[in-house]
Amino acid sequence: MIRVLLTTSLLMIAAALSAQTVGKVTDPVDWVNPLMGTASKPSLSNGNTYPAIALPWGMNFWTPQTGKMGNGWAYTYDADKIRGFKQTHQPSPWMNDYGQFSVMPVTGKMKFNQDDRASWFSHKSEIVKPYYYSVYLADADVTTEITPTERAAQFRFTFPESDAAYVVIDAFDKGSYVKIIPAERKIVGYSTRYSSGKLENFKNYFVIYFDKAFTSANGWKGNELLKGQLEVSADHAGAVVGFKTAKGEQLNMKIASSFISFEQAELNLSRELSNDSFETTKQKGKATWNKTLSRISVEGGSIDQTRTFYSSLYRMLFFPHKMYEVDKTNKIVHYSPYNGKTLPGYRFGGTGFWDTFRALYPFLNLMYPSVNKEMQEGLINDYKEGGWLPEWSSPAYADCMIGNNSASVVAEAYIKGLRGYDINTLWEALKHGANNEGPQATGRRGVEYYNKLGYVPYDVKINENAARTLEYAYDDFAIYQLGKALGKPASEIDIYKKRSMNYKNLFDPSTCLMRGKNQDGKFQSPFNPFKWGDAFTEGNSWHYSWSVFQDIDGLAKLMGGKEKFVQKLDSVFTLPPVFDDSYYGGVIHEIREMQIANMGQYAHGNQPIQHMIYLYNYAGAPWKTQYWVRETMDRMYKPTPDGYCGDEDNGQTSAWYVFSALGFYPVTPAVEQYVIGAPLFKKVTLNLENGKLFTINAAKNSKDNRYVQSLKYNGKLYTRNWLSHSGLQLGGELTFEMSATPNESRGVDPADYPFSLSTAKQ
């Protein structure tokens, strides 16, 4: 009986803790779990993330490295050993890394090979925060600590008593260089390793200083120790320096890098670290994270919801990362991967617009517009130096994914109020990309067919043709919207408005789904709407048929009207998770993630369908959006190593959660509307960059109370299913009256539906 009572009591305590609500958060960075999403592998992604120890949008990140050199899965939660501490710029394991090298302490035998030097570790002796990392390396009996700045970092190694304490520098293979300068307790070097595209004169230069003299210094290459050799240039170069240490002695190391030169790396180090101690850098990093994360304050959620929110927000504040530096005259300069030169101005790298145009960039425009302004200036430099806007930068043009979604990223920024940069050059860049096929997935593949026929045909050996057509049509809409905002003449922009309707060319009335079409105008046959890939990108027709961001009302009419449209949306969740993987010749991880989610054909782990839940608002059934938004937040996200339901992808999957937790989502980025869902917290405060506050109240919010009974905007009853970006920027208050039962009479009037091109007043 006592045992039963104790068990019951413990269960009650656990339930109470999980339901406990969190009040005002003072240090949001301490709610972040950088390990969220790290329990991943190629066959099943729970995020495919790594713990990024860095500052927001920093030029350099640091991560403990459990995988082998060149392995995109640099850190996986189920690994037992750490091989080094790696400077990384990796946007995704599938894209892999660039500008990388590592450091690793060892003791006893002089071990420098990545396998020999690897040490067992435990998560129980690991502290992981965005601004600080610490771990105990059991084989070396050394604790390693890291704290970063944007372009530099401090390391602190706590050694045992040893006459044979070492720090290994590994500049990686594919061409590297190191030089040890004992008189200055210094090491310099560079790495040339990168994974995507073609980079001109690419080097990641690094400089390292220790606060203790070396007792030994040796270079190495490959698996060969070069005794007494202080300078090494090889395919795979490295250095190992030795020390005599007392028990508990702390060895400090300062490190910085540059894409420009050794001199610039030195400048980055002196400017960002100066004479700061490790603790000072750590406190500055914490303050920077708290300031950046505090733009949004959430209250009244559970402990897990609060952790998930700030962990997701953390993931949104990395890519694209800064690739610009500040020279000795305090001017902004950058290395250009297109010509290998150092040029003036901003530049960013490491993101794919196919993912991030959907919600990540809209979030930047809402909460961090000055950062996106710098990014827009960086895009101008991409175009001037490389001739194209990137669609995937890693860090230059990468041949990955489809679409011409730079159009959305550029158009949305201007439409939502960004100014003070050369928008006319970007306008020319958009037109150039829309009407030409470029290298490395830039421009539009199949553009001649698309412009002539109104679609990319299925039978002309251009893969993912239906997906390309649908995305090009939305991108044309974005160009049209920007042209209108810039006051361009109808003779210049009407063609893009016309092409915005090209989605209709692929609509198959017999299935009410999108379907590939041959050059002769006949639909592809046979057609299996559950077939992944082929005419679509990392999805099937059930996923891509909703990719008509610009004209949902027009899509609903094609499907037979509002009621049938809603039924079709419902079908996504009620269909079994069957699939045809024959295009890939096996089950790719995106398929598996849909199959195991128990949400039918809804594949939230990948981007094409993530906006679909919000489409009920366009057909008079907003309560169904409210149900599925909350269901997806509750089931698909946790603040744990397996906390995502697919690739996190440069902040996009996190941005879906963060926007949805606020209570709205940017279905059509190139218009200034957000479609309303159901907020997650009892109170959210947006601290807008212009100094205004926008407050979202939902006092009765709970796990059961997920439905919006009524909505007030600045105290007045509000019936629309959308909010305006410009309205939010004025500040104000949105008050949700939440209930456990849906209000099926609110949001049903077509006058309250969000924007659709075919019904908009022109």
Automatic annotation (TrEMBL):
<dbReference type="Pfam" id="PF07971">
    <property type="entry name" value="Glyco_hydro_92"/>
</dbReference>
<dbReference type="GO" id="GO:0030246">
    <property type="term" value="F:carbohydrate binding"/>
</dbReference>
<dbReference type="GO" id="GO:0006516">
    <property type="term" value="P:glycoprotein catabolic process"/>
</dbReference>
<feature type="domain" description="Glycosyl hydrolase family 92">
    <location>
        <begin position="264"/>
        <end position="739"/>
    </location>
</feature>
<dbReference type="GO" id="GO:0005975">
    <property type="term" value="P:carbohydrate metabolic process"/>
</dbReference>
<dbReference type="InterPro" id="IPR014718">
    <property type="entry name" value="GH-type_carb-bd"/>
</dbReference>
<dbReference type="GO" id="GO:0000224">
    <property type="term" value="F:peptide-N4-(N-acetyl-beta-glucosaminyl)asparagine amidase activity"/>
</dbReference>
<dbReference type="InterPro" id="IPR050883">
    <property type="entry name" value="PNGase"/>
</dbReference>
<dbReference type="Pfam" id="PF17678">
    <property type="entry name" value="Glyco_hydro_92N"/>
</dbReference>
<feature type="region of interest" description="Disordered">
    <location>
        <begin position="741"/>
        <end position="762"/>
    </location>
</feature>
<feature type="domain" description="Glycosyl hydrolase family 92 N-terminal">
    <location>
        <begin position="31"/>
        <end position="258"/>
    </location>
</feature>
<dbReference type="InterPro" id="IPR008928">
    <property type="entry name" value="6-hairpin_glycosidase_sf"/>
</dbReference>
<keyword id="KW-0106">Calcium</keyword>
<keyword id="KW-0732">Signal</keyword>
<dbReference type="InterPro" id="IPR005887">
    <property type="entry name" value="GH92_a_mannosidase_put"/>
</dbReference>
<protein>
    <submittedName>
        <fullName>Alpha-1,2-mannosidase, putative</fullName>
    </submittedName>
</protein>
<dbReference type="InterPro" id="IPR012939">
    <property type="entry name" value="Glyco_hydro_92"/>
</dbReference>
<comment type="subunit">
    <text>Monomer.</text>
</comment>
<dbReference type="InterPro" id="IPR041371">
    <property type="entry name" value="GH92_N"/>
</dbReference>
<dbReference type="GO" id="GO:0005829">
    <property type="term" value="C:cytosol"/>
</dbReference>
<feature type="signal peptide">
    <location>
        <begin position="1"/>
        <end position="19"/>
    </location>
</feature>
